[in-house]
Amino acid sequence: MLCTQYRRNPYREIGALQNELQDQVRTIQRALGGLISGYTLPSSSEFPAVNLWANEDHAVVTTELAGVGADGIELSVVGKTLTLKAVRQPEELQEGERYHRRERWQGHYTRTIELPFTIDGEKVDARFAKGVLYITLPRAEADKPKKIAIKSS
């Protein structure tokens, strides 16, 4: 008798389950004629996507927030953690209009980003231009490397 051993990949199983659930939601959307259109299953830990880079003095985070106004964004920093909260409002349809396809996500979301060092929260600078949020996060002085002088005897 020949036995074959397979390795389980729980991440693949979770992804397959999420895809199956999304397919069921699409089937229900079609059956209801778009009454619940637009429901998606974004991963809260990965949405919105961010870029993060740093040097010895500061870190920079950028993220695309199309469809969100600057007044719909909330940022907070505690230690090495940046939290981004935002709200994307649904588009207003005119009377007699209905969606045939609605893939853009809407609603409230939160993204927590672990930074490479402790941040000076008083000096954070955030700009929002053309749907992109730019956040410059200065490193806290207490967290910067200190040179230690070596005395010779």
TrEMBL record:
Residues 41-153 form the SHSP domain. This is Molecular chaperone. The lineage of its organism: Bacteria, Pseudomonadati, Nitrospirota, environmental samples. Belongs to the small heat shock protein (HSP20) family. InterPro entries: A-crystallin/Hsp20_dom, HSP20-like_chaperone, Small_HSP. It comes from uncultured Nitrospirae bacterium MY2-3C.
